[in-house]
């Protein structure tokens, strides 16, 4: 489990990387700007990468390849609408074999004629 100070440092580092936006920030710049030792920054970066909050990317600056850190935009704003009409007609809801049914076993959705028939009927209607 993470200590409070560890997660605080993580939040500070993550915020700084986010602030840099598309410009990104190198690990050395980051260490200087947040005032943490490079070793501490390295382990925080590793954790943020594992959590998929940031990515490392090589960019060319002044003819040199530099590894920079970029925040990952996880703020998706997508509306998905699902038509639930007819959901109560799915044969599984009234099936006596429901508790015995599963992938890869004798009674399964892959081999069920009731389910296949219902799907085909819905697709054709
Ligand atoms: S897939 Fe077939 S057997 Fe399995 S629960 Fe649904 S209707 Fe029943």
Automatic annotation (TrEMBL):
Q: Tell me its family.
A: Belongs to the eukaryotic RPC34/RPC39 RNA polymerase subunit family.
UniProt keyword terms in alphabetical order? DNA-directed RNA polymerase, Transcription
The yes or no answer to whether the keyword Endoplasmic reticulum is present is no
InterPro entries membership: RNA_pol_Rpc34, RNA_pol_Rpc34-like, WH-like_DNA-bd_sf, WH_DNA-bd_sf
Q: What is this protein called?
A: Uncharacterized protein
Q: Does the keyword Transcription apply?
A: yes
One example of a Gene Ontology biological process annotation: transcription by RNA polymerase III
Give an example GO cellular component term for this record.
DNA-directed RNA polymerase complex
């Amino acid at each position: 489990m993470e200590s409070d100070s560890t997660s605080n440092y993580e939040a500070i580092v993550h915020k700084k990387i986010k602030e840099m936006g598309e410009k990104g920030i190198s690990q050395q710049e980051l260490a200087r700007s947040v005032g943490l030792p490079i070793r501490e920054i390295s382990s925080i970066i590793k954790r943020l990468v594992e959590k998929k909050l940031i990515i490392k990317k090589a960019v060319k600056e002044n003819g040199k390849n530099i590894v920079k850190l970029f925040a990952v935009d996880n703020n998706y704003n997508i509306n998905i609408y699902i038509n639930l009409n007819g959901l109560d007609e799915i044969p599984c809801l009234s099936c006596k074999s429901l508790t015995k049914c599963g992938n890869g076993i004798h009674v399964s959705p892959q081999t069920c004629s009731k389910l296949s028939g219902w799907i085909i009927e819905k697709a054709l209607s």
